[in-house]
Amino acid sequence: MCGIAGIVALREGAPPPEREALIRMATAMHHRGPDELGIYRDARAGLAHARLSIIDLATGQQPMSTADDTLHLTFNGEIYDYVELRAELEALGCVFRTRSDTEVILHAYRTWGDDAFARMNGQWALALWDARARRLVLSRDRVGIRPLHVLEHDGRLHFASEVKAIFAADPSIPRALDPHGLDHVFTFWGPVAPRSLFEGVTELEPGTVRTYAGDRVTEHAYWTPRYAGPHGEGGFGGSIEEATEAVREALEKATALRMLRADVTVGSYLSGGLDSSLVAALAKDAIGDRLRTFSLRFEDAEYDETDYQRLVAEALESDHQEVVVSRRDIAEAFPATIFHTERPILRTAPTPLMLLSRLVHRAGIKVVLTGEGADEMFAGYDLFREGVIRRFWARQPDSELRPRLLERLYPYLARSPVANREMAKHFFGRELERAGEPGFAHGTRWHSTAGLKRLFSGPVKARLADADAVREVLGRLPSDFATWPPLAQDQWLEIRTLMSAYILSSQGDRMLMASSVEGRFPFLDRDVVELANALPPRHKLRVLDEKHVLKRAARGRIPEAVLARKKQPYRAPDALSFASEGAPAWVEDALTEGAVAEAGVFDPRAVAQLHRKCRRQARKGQLSNADNMALVGVLSTQLLHAQLVREPPPATTDAALTTDHDRLAEAAR
After folding, report:
1. How far is CA 372 from the centre of its chain?
2. Fewest CB within 10 A of the end CB: N or C in the chain?
3. Torsion over CA of 586, 590, 591 and 594, rounded to 10 degrees?
4. Exposure of 109 in the CB half-sphere (CA atoms within 13 A)
5. DSSP 653
6. Angle at CA 410, nearest 5°, toward 441 and 414?
7. In 339-476, where do the E strands start and end?
8. What is residue 433's three-state secondary structure?
9. Residues 336, 313: contact at Cβ < 8 Å?
10. At what angle do helices 443-450 and 179-188 cross, to 10 degrees?
């Protein structure tokens, strides 16, 4: 896992990339790759790399070039089937100089061109420079595990894993928050690619290849999901028993690949839920040895899952470590969280995960497995059950009995949105007449979150007068979206919005890489994803039993108590961390009238009113859901402005380079 960056001249006569700029870009992401820094530079292109050494520690330095010095690659991620691809390429006559998956990409591209990416099973963001053809190729994995941002400025293309590296390249690059990106955050919890939080910066969409050749820019999707029909037509045709076995075998293979294809020790997160417990059990089977596991605990009992975590750790006889997080810990670490997320967040949940990754780093572990993706691929969220209930209710909107099914949702919440029957009926009964339209299941969440935009300043509201984030995202649906079953439509939108834009980014990649730790996700393995999509909806969500086939696959592999427990999604203490007595001084500083006015995103009077309200509620020990998200959203946006707009990102140019392919310097000699 690494950080990648680069600068490419888009037109003849544009100046070549400066060596110092490339080094600044790499060092701005030193946390992503502390082991080695490298650059490649010629008259048109420059590539930079900050390496976290995991595969082929001795000869896998980057940027990596082909033997004839025509193709040059900077690559962030892992290709898990690189051994099989290498054997296939060797049979075609390719000769390898290293044992790395990076070199496999170079030969695969030379052999198959842009079609190479569809053959890869992994997680990646990469930039490949074809010096002979003067062609830049950018690609990102299927579901957006690894980030890649781009910006055109002054005739040159800048790209990087993190936006702070782009800003570090050139002080003349404008730094400003994009109201349209904020519109996405305050609707979907994150900017949906190609949107980003910064004006002029876009994010490469998952599952795509983009090429720059002279004045021509092309982009195409190398992968689009395919789902089985309502009754399984066009997908997996076996019984539930056969599906259970297929899921188990696919997950065993996916976990083994992620455990064994590394030249360092691989650990596993353990939350105490079904997903991470199953991954940890399969990981232990794969290595046949003592497993390193890591858990996150909370001082607040409402969020703590210690008993289940320890139950699994004892069953696996793992070498287990824990970190206990308090509200104070969250408040103190929150500014560092936002420096790494590079986007506002509406929940504090990423911060404890950053503290957990610190524990992993201090334990000497560079790679961990996690259970992310299981809920999206196997229909584990309450949102999917909401969709079923609300569509059932929509067939008889006047029914008094059908909305009672909502009471079966959110058993883990102390302040459940269905606790008050009449309020729940009003909230979930919105727009039942649109039950057949795209986004129906997500509509309640998106509508509720969008209410936070009332805090925006007048100028931001004016910029967004004609904007509609939901319409924008729904306008980019796959061509065959309308033919998919409702559950498949709900799953795809959840993957495209919340998972890619928030869970894999703010909670995933950014919090792991903040401590130089790589996350690996067996549930997002190419073959697991294809199998999950091919399953009939009833195998994933049987009436209201979420992840039905996955639970069957896990039986006998994890403690029965974990399998039988009610679902409890990962959550953390939110605005109480900032509104209670003893909050750090930065909270008050970020919310002063002057600071809010300077950032220009929110109305200072509305923010002052929100802050007073939250402090009053905090004295009673309870904040409403809307006020929770509002205060966290305001604070994170204020921090983002202070760290990446008002102040230039920190970067140095005195780092020692282990790979320095400076073609301009060679030409000068």
Report:
1. 9
2. C
3. 130
4. 24
5. S
6. 140
7. 367-369
8. helix
9. no
10. 130
Residue 654: per-residue pLDDT: 65
Lookup: tokens for 318: 């793992």
The closest alpha carbon to 343, from 454, 196, 451, belongs to 196
Closest CA to 243 of 548, 485, 523, 487: 548
CB 258 within 8 A of CB 80: yes
- Model confidence over 10-58: pLDDT tens digits? 988 888 899 999 999 999 999 999 999 999 999 999 999 999 888 777 7
Which pairs count as long-range contacts for 395-402, CB under 8 Å and 24+ apart, including other chains? Answer: 395/435, 397/429, 397/432, 397/433
Residue 227 tokens, joined? 């789902």
Pairing of strands 45-51, 36-41: antiparallel
Average pLDDT of the residues of the chain: 93
CB 7, CB 17: distance < 8 Å: yes
Q: What is the structure's pLDDT at 567? A: 80
- Which among 291, 260, 254, 285 is positioned nearest to 371, based on CA atoms? 254
Our CA angle for 47, 49, 50, nearest 5°, is 160
Q: What band does 667 get if pLDDT is binned at 50, 70 and 90? A: low
Secondary structure letter of residue 455 according to DSSP: G
Average pLDDT over residues 104-133: 97
Query: How large is the average pLDDT for residues 539-561?
Result: 96
pLDDT value of position 269: 98
Cα–Cα distance for residue pair 548/198, rounded to 1 Å:
41
